Amino acid sequence: MASSRDAILATVRAAKVPQAARPEPFRAGIRYADPLKQFGESLAAVGGKMIVAPDADSARAQLLENPLLVPGKKNCSLLPEIIAPTFSLDDIADPHEVEDVWLAVLPGEFAVAENAAVWFSGRRLKHRVVPFITQHLVLVVPRDQVVNNMHEAYDRLKFGTVEFGVFISGPSKTADIEQSLVIGAHGARSLSVVMLG
């Protein structure tokens, strides 16, 4: 006599599931009349700040208005024309030595209007912990590199040469303890995105 287990497995094996064609890739996605404006609204909703600057000088002037630059603090910058670094990241061998970075200014490749995500690849960054361990993060994105949605964003990604990349949206935050929102819980306390150009 067959066991219940054998009977169930025999029934499953005997079942014929009809073949189904693979669905076409989803291409719809939300579109915005003004993706840059929508990006700014989405970024504000997740706790970040957008700065629109026609050139590096304007970006630097607007960043200097913020209390982000503090004398004596460590600044990491891959964009010295906007904010000068206070140390050379290439001279640091141990990533633990960047634990006290106050401000990091890094290039973003493109931004997503739908959720305020910025694609950052670690192509030029020796220690990829920097955007997550810094107290304040500034991502600089070309103004004309804003896509509407994540479908468009994923179409732009190329993984052949990039070893590390991440979408960053807003400063670090959590609200899982007593439903109280804490900004900077496990990463940057602030995020500014400079739209350059």
Short summary:
This protein is of the alpha/beta class and 197 residues long. It has helices at 4-14, 35-45, 56-65, 130-133, 150-156, and strands at residues 49-53, 74-77, 101-107, 110-112, 117-121, 136-142, 146-147, 165-168, 173-174, 182-183, 190-196. It is elongated.
Largest sheet: 5 strands, parallel
* Number of strand elements: 11
Shape: elongated
CATH superfamily: NagB/RpiA/CoA transferase-like
The appropriate CATH architecture is: 3-Layer(aba) Sandwich
Specify the CATH class: Alpha Beta
Domain count: 1
Measured by DSSP, the beta-strand proportion falls in 15-25%
The percentage helix is 10-25%
Poorly predicted sequence stretches spanning 5 or more consecutive residues: none
Helix/strand-derived class? alpha/beta
- Number of helix segments? 5
N-to-C terminal Cα separation, in Å?
78 Å
What number is the mean pLDDT? 88
